[in-house]
Design a protein that fits this description.
Length: about 280
């Protein structure tokens, strides 16, 4: 009687299930845990014939398709999350030979392209951002970053990095965007204008003509408890001041003036008022 492939596989499966159950399974497990058996198996796995056969098996389309299934991935994830398997993987990665292989692999264009595509995924970005926020907020990390920033090597490297044209252009665009956001907010709040404009003379042709004015005076605002509680200081200016304003949800005490009105308002003889100030506006 000729058996079909399905029947033969079913019979073999039944036989293996029966054979590797109970005492037989325990004995087989004990046998494979012996040091000499492990060494023999390891030596066998390193032979060229076995490597070629394993490579050929992994290249099969059905094997590749099976490894892409959700069930297989979930099983693999569960397996690698076990503490003993994590410890094994960590020990393997510390072997000098494996370190060298990993370093060489990380330098290949294919790996870099794949890593870049992976890092661009929204879920990966969100996970990295959350981890970075938690990690950087740790006191030990803050202390380390502070010590690092004081070293001559770091200062020289940071200075060289800031002088790069692409970095300067990116920073310039970022500051422009932040400044525009602050000017738009205070113009809309006090001047009732959606376009940034001077609260005094209504200049609005370009934001480069506009300045952020401290209504009570930059140094005088140091004595205002509400602002001091938020971390205000007269030493804040330019980017640091803009970032502080946004961080503290646009506190009161600031307005938008053009540079002419701002300069004239600051002169002692004008009693902190612009010469062509419109009384209806204030």
């Amino acid at each position: 009687m000729v058996q079909t492939d399905e029947e033969r596989k079913a019979r073999q499966k039944k036989y293996h299930k029966k054979y590797y159950s109970g005492k037989v399974k325990a004995k087989a497990k004990e046998y494979h845990q012996r040091p000499e058996v492990k060494a023999r198996q390891k030596a066998y796995q390193q032979t060229p014939k076995r490597k070629a056969k394993h490579k050929e098996y992994n290249a099969r389309p059905e094997v590749k398709a099976r490894r892409q299934t959700p069930e297989y991935k979930a099983r693999q994830k569960t397996y690698y999350q076990k503490p003993e398997n994590k410890a094994k993987a960590k020990a393997r990665s510390q072997i000098p030979e494996n370190k060298a292989k990993a370093k060489a692999r990380n330098q290949t264009p294919e790996y870099k392209t794949r890593q870049k595509a992976y890092n661009q995924k929204p879920e990966v970005k969100a996970r990295q951002k959350a981890y970075s926020k938690t990690f950087e907020s740790k006191p030990i990390r803050k202390a380390y970053q502070k010590r690092k920033a004081q070293t001559p090597e770091y200062k020289a490297r940071h200075k060289a990095w800031k002088l790069k044209p692409e970095v300067k252009a990116k920073e310039k665009a970022r500051v422009y965007k932040i400044r525009l956001k602050v000017l738009q907010y205070y113009s809309k709040r006090l001047s009732k204008s959606n376009i940034p404009c001077c609260r005094c003379c209504e200049e609005n042709s370009h934001i480069d003509f506009l300045a952020l004015d401290h209504i009570a005076g930059r140094k005088e605002m140091d004595s205002e408890p509400k602002l001091v509680k938020l971390g205000y200081s007269s030493s804040l200016f330019d980017r640091r001041l803009l970032n502080w304003i946004i961080k503290n949800n646009f506190p009161k005490g600031f307005q938008v003036l053009c540079h002419n009105c701002n300069f004239a308002k600051g002169m002692t003889k004008n009693n902190n008022k612009c010469p062509h100030q419109k009384s209806a506006k204030f």
